Amino acid sequence: MSNLHKRAGADRSAAALSVNPLYSGLISEGGVPRYRLPDGPMHPDAALAIIRDELMMDGNARLNLATFSTTWMEPQAKELIGECLDRNMVDREEYPQIADLEGRCVNMLTELWHDPGHGIGCSTAGSSEAAMLGGLAMKFAWRRRGHAGDRPNLVIGTNTHVCWQKFCRYWDVEARLVPIRHHGGAFDLRLDPEDVASHCDENTIGVVAVLGSTQTGAYDPVAQIAAALDRLEAERGIDVPLHVDAAGGGFVAPFLQPSLVWDFRLPRVRSINASGHKFGLVYPAVGWVVWQDAADLPDDLVLHTDVLGGPQETFTLNFSRSGAPIAAQYYNFLRLGFDGYRAVQQTCQDVARHLVAGISELGGLEPLTDGSDLPVFAVRTADDLGCTAHELSDRLRRRGWQVPAYHLPPALEEIQVLRFVIRNGFSFDTADKLLADLREVLRDVRAPGGPEPRARHPLTALTR
Ligand SMILES: *Cc1c(COP(=O)(O)O)cnc(C)c1O
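A: This is the predicted complex of the input protein with pyridoxal-5'-phosphate.
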C-alpha cells in the first residue's frame, strides 16, 4: 500500500458509500458519494456513524503486535487532548503556555539523557521529522567545517529505520550503509563499531546508531561505536559526530537499563531523537530531538519570522501542528513520573520475555532477540517447520492477531522473521492467549497434509 492516492476513475468517483438503512433518513437523497465532495450537509450523527462503521474494519489495537505507536491512553489524557486540539504549536505568541510545556518536556528529556546542562531541543511530528532535523544539523555543521563542493555522506547501518535513507535521498547525502555482520555461519543484528569507523572519511557528516532496531528491538553498542570514533579521531584526525536514533530506546533505556551508557554521558553523542508516540506512551504524533550543546545546532538553520505577530524562531519542516500531543506528553510526565514509566516499561519487558520463553518451548520457532533491550523481539521459523514466517503471519491474522513478517536487511535478506512489539496494555493473559493460538497454528502446519518443509538455512544468530 502507498501513501500516494491516485485519482479514482470516473465510474468509481460516482460510486456511493453503502449506508445502513437506519441512517438513511439523516442523509440527503441520492446517497453519499465516495470520492466527490457531497452536495450538501448531513446530520452530524449520520456522519459520525458512517465513519465509525468504516473504521471498525481497521482491526483491534489490543491484538496488534505490529505497531510501535501508542494505542491506549487514559481517559483524562484523552480529555486534555480534546481540549488542546485547537492549539497551534507554531503560534507561540497566542499560546505561550503550550510552548512552555514543550520546553519543560525538552528539559526533562535532556536531563533523562544526561546532558551536561547546555542542551537544546524541540518537539517534532515524530522521529522521522526529528531525523531530518538531526541530519540537517549534521550536514550544516559539516559544511561549516569547510567542505563546500564535496559530497557529504552519512554512515548508517542496514538495521536503521527507513527515515535515514529518506533523509539521505531528500537532502542529497550519500547513504553509506554498514551491513549487519555476516561471518561464517553466524550473524549479529547490531552494528559493528570497527566497521562503522572504517566507513567514515572527511566527508562523513555523522554516524547514526539505533537504540533499538525497529526490526529486532536490539540496541546498537553505542559506547563501543563512540570509542571507535574516538580512536578514528586520535589516529586520523577525523572528528565524526554520533547521533543516536533512540526512537524507542530513549523512553526505555533510562528506566530499564539505567547503567547502559548510550546518551550524552558520551561526549561523542551530539544529538538524540525519540518518538513520544512509541514508548513515550502518547498518541501520534509527537517526537523529540535534542542536541548536547546549543553549538551543535548551526544557527543558519533557524529561521526568523514575525508573520504571527511578534518575532519567532523556527526550526521545523512543517509550520502548523497541533499542540495536543505536547500537552499529552507533559500529562504522562506528570502522571507517571520516573517510577511510573519504569513500571510500565518493566511490565512490557516482563511480558515480552514471558512470550519469548513460551515461544521457545513451542518448537519450530527460534527467537533472534529476547526482549531484553526494547520489549520487542523477532523470531525466525525453524528450517524444518515447513512453513514460512509470512504464512504464519497470515494464519495468526485470521485469528485476529497482527504480527508482521518481513525479510532481514541486505546480506541476511533470505531470513524471514516475525516481529512482536509489546506495548503498554498487553497483559500476561493476552500473551497466554497468543501462545495458545500459536500452538494451534503450529500444530496445523505440522499436521500431515500441511505445507511442505522448505530448504534448510545454516545461519544462527549471535547472542550477547
Ligand atoms: C519508528 C522509528 C522511526 C520513525 O519514527 P516515527 O516517529 O514513526 O516517525 C525512526 N527510527 C526508529 C529506530 C524507529 O523505530
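The two ends are 37 Å apart (CA to CA). Residues 124 and 458 are 43 Å apart (CA to CA).
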